[in-house]
Design brief:
mainly alpha; Aspartate Aminotransferase, domain 2; globular; three-stranded parallel sheet; 7 helices; single chain
């Protein structure tokens, strides 16, 4: 399914808190959980709570099957293989895993923006402090907009990571992800 085919009103109905009229922009810190996910979680807790991939009894087999089906579903959405899908507790945990899992060298460049949530800024700041990598922050204009040229000037051969949010929780603006990805591939 492409984003243009997305029925936003139907998706919003999966989040009862949105019926209050709020606009929620803090998903990097605490993502809202949709009703189908809550229902599936309760199903797990009620009917097959067991360790995944660690038992040969009925409940463990069912729990493992459910996780592997979810992994296959997500892989399909992302046009990836199920083996490439890793489930983590939250975005902050995931970003810290990536930050600490990369072999950094002095002079490696990390490019990010001034509109990032702390969960996508502080890990890179710590990597730079700890390893001597260079953290380059691309600054937006007062309206929260960027020019692709701003990224072209800082993405180079030393750039090991470009990490930007798709939509800033700071100002609610969308970033030019596709254009930035194109620049990063050419560097």
């Amino acid at each position: 399914m492409e984003v243009k085919d997305l029925d936003v009103d139907r998706v919003r109905r999966d989040f009862p808190i949105l019926e209050t009229g709020i606009i929620y922009l803090d998903s990097a810190a605490t993502t809202l959980t949709p009703e189908p996910v809550l229902n599936k979680m309760m199903e797990y807790y009620r009917y097959y709570r067991a360790n995944v991939h660690r038992g040969a009894y009925r409940l463990a087999i069912q729990a493992t099957r459910e996780v592997e089906e979810a992994r296959a579903t997500v892989a399909g959405w992302l046009k990836a293989s199920p083996e490439e899908i890793v489930f983590t507790p939250n975005t902050t945990y995931s970003l810290n895993m990536v930050a600490m899992g990369i072999e950094w060298r002095k002079g490696d460049r990390i490019v990010t923006t001034n509109l990032e949530h702390n969960s996508n800024f502080l890990p890179w700041q710590e990597v730079a402090r700890r390893t001597g990598a260079e953290l380059v922050v691309v600054r937006s204009d007062p309206n929260g907009s960027f020019e692709l040229a701003d990224f072209e000037h800082v993405i180079n051969q030393r750039t090991k990571l470009v990490t930007v949010t798709a939509a800033s929780n700071v100002l609610g603006v969308k970033l030019p992800i596709k254009g930035i990805g194109w620049i990063a591939k050419d560097s």
